[in-house]
Amino acid sequence: MRSTCGLFYDNDQLTVHYLIHLKKVLSLVYIKALLCSVAADIISTVEFNSTGELLATGDKGGRVVVFQREQESKNQPHRRGEYNVYSTFQSHEPEFDYLKSLEIEEKINKIRWLPQQNAAYFLLSTNDKTVKLWKISERDKRPEGYNLKDEDGRIRDPTTITALRVPVLRPMDLMVEATPRRVFSNAHTYHINSISVNSDYETFMSTDDLRINLWNLEITNRSFNIVDIKPVNMEELTEVITAAEFHPHQCNTFVYSSSKGSIRLCDMRASALCDNHSKFFEEPEDPSNRSFFSEIISSISDVKFSHSGRYLMTRDYLTVKVWDLNMESKPLETYQVHDYLRSKLCSLYENDCIFDKFECVWNGSDSVIMTGSYNNFFRMFDRNTKRDVTLEASRENSKPRAILKPRKVCVGGKCRKDEISVDSLDFSKKILHTAWHPYENIIAVAATNNLYIFQDKVNYDMKNL
Q1: Tens digit of pLDDT for each residue in 18-66?
Q2: If you ran DSSP here, which 8-state letter would residue 149 be given?
Q3: In terms of CB atoms within 10 Å, which end of the chain has fewer, N or C?
């Protein structure tokens, strides 16, 4: 009898412990869910359309948010340039590849706008495996007076139809609709890192780590492989493709960069498979600067043609380089983004920050370039005057119509009042994605889950930075 009571007592204790443990598990699940919801809001791409009137952002939760620029009014002329939310839609959902037991996350890797041909807007968005073509359109009228159905859409009884009605359009509140028009899938074994629309506006390419595919915008079930660097034996793999882009004016020319710091210019007129490049751009490494991290920091994270098509801009971990298409031997210009981090590469390697992929952008006239850094800093370089500036995107320094003050980073010794020590930089705050208005001095900067839009003041030139 005592043993039986003791058994119940032990079971009761076990139940209590189990409930406590279950509460801990539930609380951990709740915390994890909160972290996932915060991570889903992190912006993963930013892109202006060809006119600059629209700005699209994609995040890790698979959502696309489109901002529209305010129209200028006589009463509030200063509001010209402010962007408000125009449309929000879920572009991609999480998937699971059962054949490979692989989870495909919904994160939007890239967004590319198509030139506007009519009243609607079109954009391409991609996650790791699937590219989608979206149509964004406005509707401010609704049809009324159907003959075969009621106003709510239900089919009418034919016996009740006694007269012919002429449908009419009635005004309604403006509604913005985002509808998927094409889905381009099942063409990539590896993760898609970039997409680019061709200047013929009929084709685009999607790029993964080892292959580049060419698509027709009207055909979803077939693509053409134009680059394949996958070796027969994967153990012999030495480099991967990191980014690719079409020439802005020549529909037969494109460029792609690699993890070895090289850029290859290809001509689709030469052959169907562009494994043999037309031009090869690579800067020889200085043997005196070689270290354990040399290959990692030389990997190119972004490549962009200039608007004129004459130059190429590439971003590696520490520098931005500008290349002349007519000179393959060395870059035309080299700009140090955060050279003060060279002494901290070991710690950056340990916290995986050394693998961050920073983007770079041109301004509309190709005279100024911009790229991101840590501590929510972003850098601008004037190609004409060779002057540069470091600015910070933060809520404290970003009040409406406030002037951004240049920031400086000091290395060692005492820092001045307006300087910040390199040891005080916050590496969790990083600006990976930036965009520049195609014609005006308006920039968009993504800092984790915050989007900052800065506009040049009237009669103020960014070249004077």
Answers
A1: 344 444 444 444 444 444 556 788 999 999 999 999 999 999 999 999 9
A2: B
A3: N
Q: What type of residue is 205?
A: M
Q: How far apart are CA 323 and CA 311, in angstroms?
A: 6
pLDDT digits (tens, 9 = 90+) for 237-290: 899 999 999 999 999 999 999 999 999 999 999 988 988 899 999 988 777 777
Angle formed at CA 314 by CA 313 and CA 318, multiple of 5 degrees: 130
- Residues written for the chain: 465
Per residue in 179-224, pLDDT tens? Answer: 999 999 989 999 999 999 999 999 999 999 999 999 999 999 999 9
The model scores a pTM over 0.70? yes
Contacts for 418 with CB less than 8 Å, ≥ 6 apart: 405, 407, 408
Give DSSP secondary structure letters for 17-85: HHHHHHHHHHHHHHHHHHHHHHHHTSEEEEEE-TTSSEEEEEETTSEEEEEEEPPP-SS-GGGTT-EEE
Residue 63 burial (CB count, 10 A): 19
189 CB-near residues (< 8 Å, 6+ apart): 208, 210, 211
Please spell the DSSP secondary structure of 372-404, one letter per residue. E-BTTEEEEEETTT--EEEEE--STT--TTPPP
What are the structure tokens assigned to 66, written together? 């489109």
d(CA 359, CA 302): 5
State both tokens at 19: 């409930």
Tracing tokens 């915390």 back to the chain, one arrives at: 31
